[in-house]
Amino acid sequence: MRRGAARPRIIVFVAVLLLAPMLIAGTLQIGTTSETPGQEFKTFSPLAAYLGKELQAEGITSAQVVVGRSLSESAKLIRDAKIDLYIDSPFPSLAVSHFSGSKLLVRRWKNGVGEYHSIIFTRADSGIGRLENLHKKVLGFETPYSSSAFFLPKMVLLQKGFKLMPMDDPSGAVERGKVGYTFTGDDENTMLWVLRGKVSAGVLDNQAYAQLAGENLYQLHIIHRSFSIPRQLVSYRANLPSRLVAKIKDILIGMEQSAEGNKSLHDFERTTKFDEIPAPLMVPIRRSWKLIEADVAK
Q: Which of 47, 110, 180, 230 has the lowest tally of Cβ within 10 angstroms?
């Protein structure tokens, strides 16, 4: 009887010994979400190459980039262990975490910026001087996956009681008591559409606004600035071995301390560093998460 009772323990013990190396050996998969995967493969390659090299002592032989075409697809890839690390702006990162169980790790300073905010702006001659003047007007967001140019400003407007109406055609009629919105596709289009009157107002992050306004700054009027959020976040799948997670975190935070690490950071969209996530920046997002939960489920 004692031999029979001991057997399951031996089987479980052997299984753990066999499975443990498999969890950390092989290829580290770094993921994000984009409708244009080709560009993301190129963008993330410097970081993947660096981590693949630095993690060899942990049994990692290489690192590759995996791109989901939607938040739901990225979440599934994480659940299926086809993405180990996920890097994106806060709202997509939290959405993917909500549906996959992934956990936040560190903040990324993309393009030298650790935090940013949304700006809602109009033409100076539009007659729109404040948010309340947006009723029955059309607002231009960037893409359905943008934190600063969709999720954050939409959250702000919903908090203030606005009712929003999605529109495929920005020239269409907006229902009474609502604000219409459409997607411009990129920051440059948002600025151009506002200047040309294709949309009544647009949304950009503060850095993009400063860069794109240029000589047209005098033609523009800012009607709202949102609270600030982290520029980007790194998260990891929940069942990634804790030892490997700790090592990845140490490597990312320490990259700025070596010449090779700094070069890889710079080649990764001029990232300046990775650091701890400032808890206060996450509070307003989590507090109002319910307002945009339906959008992040898409």
A: 110
**Distance, CA of 190 to CA of 270 (rounded, Å):** 23
* pLDDT of 88 higher than 80: yes
Domain total of the chain: 2
In this structure, the number of other CB atoms found within 10 A of the CB of residue 151 comes to 26
Which residues span the domain enclosing 143? 118-226
Q: Which residues pair with 176 in a beta bridge?
A: none
pTM confidence score:
0.85
Same-domain check for residues 102 and 125: no
Cα–Cα distances in angstroms (integers) from residue 19 to residues 10, 26, 135, in the given order: 14, 13, 59
Kindly report the CATH number assigned to the domain that includes residue 189: 3.40.190.10
Cα(47)–Cα(66) distance, rounded to whole angstroms? 13
Name, in order, each residue with C-beta under 8 angstroms of 153's C-beta and a sequence gap of 6 or more: 118, 120, 139, 141, 203, 224, 226
Residue 263's SS3 state is helix
How does strand 178-183 pair with strand 201-205? unpaired
pLDDT of residue 298: 57
Q: What is the pLDDT of residues 262-278, one digit of tens each?
A: 999 999 999 999 999 99
Residue 104 domain-assigned (yes or no): yes
Looking at the fold, whether 97 and 8 belong to one and the same domain comes out as yes
Is the pLDDT at 97 greater than 50? The verdict is yes
**CB-count burial class (<10 Å; 0-12, 13-18, 19+) for 194:** buried
- Identify the domain boundary among 192, 209, 226: 226
List Cα–Cα distances, 225 to 131, 135, 154, 209, in angstroms. Answer: 11, 18, 12, 11
CB 93 within 8 A of CB 235: yes
